[in-house]
């Protein structure tokens, strides 16, 4: 009863803000749980774009335009706007503060994932010896004919690892099964679409 009265007292914009923020919070919780139990949460939910699509490359291969980062931004923006809307009278200032918090949250999470990726890749796995022949899926689209890098997630020793990837063939779209055919360096693999290997 109280919740219904509170909800009806909100303006349309406030309802939208609360709805989007709560939805982002729920998705964030689900993503976090799936990440910690080792599930592949991002394979089917990433926007098919990375820094190289915009003519740039982020340091360490970290991709900015992902569904996870979108959720993190909405999370930071939404909760900041909700918590400060009564304290900050100027809507313009409130939006700027909320946007900065959202961007900061994205940057922090990207940094943490970069550290985790480095920790994973500096483990006991010898990628040169163990990656060739492994299968996995495309995480971010791989441009054809080595014209750019994408990302793949492969399973090595029952552990899911993420690497930059090139292909000599046609463009390989997100979530396509692949097989590693060569190791370019410790962080980059040459892959082929798994279906193309089946005669």
Q: What do these coordinates show?
A:
The chain is of the alpha+beta class and 199 residues long. Helices cover 43% and strands 18% of the residues. It has 5 helices and 5 strands; from the N terminus they run αααααβββββ. The protein has helices at residues 2-9, 12-36, 67-84, 91-121, 127-130, and strands spanning 135-140, 150-156, 159-166, 177-185, 188-193. The chain has a 5-stranded mixed beta barrel. Strand 2 (150-156) and strand 3 (159-166) form a beta hairpin. Helix 2 packs across helix 3 (67-84) and helix 3 packs antiparallel against helix 4. It is elongated. The termini are far apart. Residues 39-62 have low confidence and may be disordered.
Q: Top keywords for this entry?
A:
199 residues, alpha+beta, 5-stranded mixed beta barrel, 5 strands, 43% helix, 18% strand
What is the N-to-C order of secondary-structure elements (H for helix, E for strand)? HHHHHEEEEE
Largest sheet: 5 strands, mixed, barrel
Q: Rounded to an integer, what's the Rg over CA atoms?
A: 20 Å
Subunit organisation of the chains: single chain
- Give the total of beta strands: 5
């Amino acid at each position: 009863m109280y919740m219904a009265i509170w909800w009806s007292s909100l303006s349309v914009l406030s309802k939208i803000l609360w709805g989007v923020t709560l939805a982002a919070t729920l998705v964030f919780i689900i993503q976090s749980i799936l990440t910690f139990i080792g599930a592949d949460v991002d394979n089917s939910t990433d926007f098919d774009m990375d820094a190289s699509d915009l003519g740039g490359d982020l340091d360490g291969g970290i991709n900015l335009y992902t569904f996870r980062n979108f959720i993190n931004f909405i999370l930071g923006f939404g909760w900041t706007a909700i918590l400060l809307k009564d304290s900050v009278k100027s809507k313009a200032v409130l939006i700027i503060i909320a946007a900065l918090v959202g961007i900061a949250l994205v940057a922090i999470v990207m940094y943490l994932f970069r550290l985790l990726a480095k920790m994973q890749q500096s483990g006991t796995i010898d990628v040169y010896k163990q990656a060739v022949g492994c299968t996995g899926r495309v995480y971010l689209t791989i441009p054809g004919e080595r014209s750019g890098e994408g990302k793949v997630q492969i399973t090595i020793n029952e552990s899911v690892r993420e690497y930059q990837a090139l292909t000599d063939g046609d463009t390989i779209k997100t979530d396509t099964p692949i097989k590693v055919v060569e190791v370019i360096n410790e962080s980059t693999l040459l892959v082929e679409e798994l279906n193309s290997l089946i005669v």
